Amino acid sequence: MADWGPVFISLVLFILLSPGLLFQIPGKNRFIEFGNFQTSGVSILIHALIFFALVAILLIAIDLYMTCKESKRIPRFISLYLKNKVERKKLVPKKIYKSIKIKPATKMSDWGPVVISVVLFVLLSPGLLFQLPAHHRIVQFGSMETSGVSILVHSIIFFAILAVFLIAIGVRITTG
């Protein structure tokens, strides 16, 4: 069963943290500017750091996940506290408990979704490498500008590439 949680969390954060849509840190004239549809290399770096922090917190620390059918996965932060079988039987529903063996969480974390989504956030930020569609052309390279339509198009590209890497290929980067 594929875990779509990292894909959708990263997509929502990509849209919300695209420099110039809601806010830009640092702005051209002030420290923070709202809705100016401009971008810069420094603001993409700052927004990428914020993106990395939020994705790491949501996917690694809190262990958010989303599946299409009934999930048989127990979140890591719950399984840490389930030390013996008596505690497991009390907290885990019978249907799930009988179908899987619950192991206490190990220290290994899957950093693949975090790393891939941060790299794609930087590469696909509208205006840095390219802007599709641009204001006066179809594609404009290095314009450091953005628009609502280009953020939408870049979000669709971001979603497609991230889904291919995380769901179809199943890239995993684990730490031990």
From TrEMBL:
Keywords attached to this entry: Membrane, Transmembrane, Transmembrane helix
Superkingdom of this protein's organism: Eukaryota
The keyword Transmembrane is annotated on this UniProt entry: yes
Stretches that traverse the bilayer: 7-25, 45-66, 111-131, 151-171
Signal sequence, start to end: none
InterPro entries linked: DUF3339
Entry-linked Pfam families: DUF3339 (PF11820)
Classification via PANTHER family: OS05G0103400 PROTEIN (PTHR33128)
Protein name: Uncharacterized protein
Organism lineage: Eukaryota, Viridiplantae, Streptophyta, Embryophyta, Tracheophyta
